[in-house]
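User: I'm curious whether this sequence folds into something compact or stays loose and floppy. Could you predict its structure so I can see for myself?
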Amino acid sequence: MENKEKKSLNYYMRFMHRNVGFFILGFVIVYGLSGIVLIYRDTDFLKLEKKIHTTLPVGLNPSEVGSALRIRDFKVAKIEGDHIYFQGGSYNKATGETDQEVKELVYPLNKLTGLHKTASKNTLHWFTLTFGIIMLFMAISSLWMFKRGSVLFQNGILTALAGIIFAGILLFFI
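Assistant: Here's the prediction. I'll summarize afterward.
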């Protein structure tokens, strides 16, 4: 008969942590890069100018133009006759013609940040939700990397507590 040792929870958590960690390496890189790029979303860093021509319904008032174009904090710069001018574009009330100049991130950064900002209406939200759950698993499973009571485990717990405190400070006091 074969002598099979029963594997401990510690063994399985380490096994899963290691393999899941290797599997999600690409995803972590994508989210890390897109998060860094999103910090500078209010600047023109890594953006190219793009001209957009659209036709909206005729006779919209200024607030309707902003809503129709999905422009946050829409502000009218001036109105001259049938033309409504706003930052980066104009709208002709008589024809509905709209010209805009927008700045968009260069490819592939636009794809990375799009994935990072996935809304619940988008089918890809299941991917981003799953990734978030996997990241929680990685954080929790790291507690099984070292034997309880060892110096490495105690140092790990102290480091984790310092990280939790630092995150709390960032969230509540800054």
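Summary: DSSP finds six helices and five strands in the chain. The first helix runs from residue 9 to 23.
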